[in-house]
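Show me any protein, fold above all:
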Amino acid sequence: MYHKPVLLNESIEGLNINPNGIYFDVTFGGGGHSKEILKNLSEKGRLYAIDRDPDAHENTIKDKRFTLIYGNFRYIKNYIEFYKLESIDGILADFGVSSHQFDISDRGFSFRLGGNLDMRMNPEQTTKASDILNKYSDEDLYKIFRTYCDIHNPGKLVKSIIEYRQQKDFEDIESFIELIKPVMPYQREIKYQAQVFQALRIEVNDEINSLNEFLDSIPYLLTIGGRLSAISYHSLEDKPVKNLIKTGNTRGELQKDFYGQTNLPLKAINRKIIIPNEKEINENPRAKSAKLRIAEKI
């Protein structure tokens, strides 16, 4: 299976689908969420999906109500304008990396499989993980590992990287893992590697800027009563979603008008974060850290 959809029933139910409505699945992947949305649409309903990974487009769905867009969800406003859609009734987003991307060694997402230091979600872009390790300044590297993961010694890690590349360029995962072994905390090696790879992946794909740009456009795209169903996997993803729902923007800055009143564009549907149950986690361990937030345009 390309990718097992996480929190499938909960995220679809959260959309409160109007059978005749227009919906976006902005992280198509294996198409699991999209197929479920289509089951709830009438012949008049429409579903648009987005993915920047060409591998995901091999999973396209043959349905006259469905359109798969090759691109980045940060540009959802442009796609809505291109297809002349005035507003949309719901958006589903699953921000996790697909199982397929992790399980294909050539993609370089997994520290367990070896291969090239790649990590590009869109193979057509130029910057790879190896380019970051070989070319970024020590200050920029420190910022990445300080900001995008929760390791306690980013300075030591960066120092090791700088010393290594003075002799040889980074190319493969195995060499990189061997280099950083001395700075890994005892009995936490696996978690440390996962965090370092997460930070590199986020930088390669400009994930945080893409996420914030996408989320900040949501209040202007949804029709009244339209919903956002968003699944995140770590705090860097979940926090801006939470901020958007609470304040209307990803920065968490509550905006007030001249009279000191707040006009929030969204309201939370679930006051408590929805997480996978034990059965789902047992069947799909990668769902363990998933968190679902649902919001409605008011």
Observations:
- Strands lie at 22-25, 46-51, 66-70, 88-94, 222-232, 266-268, 291-297.
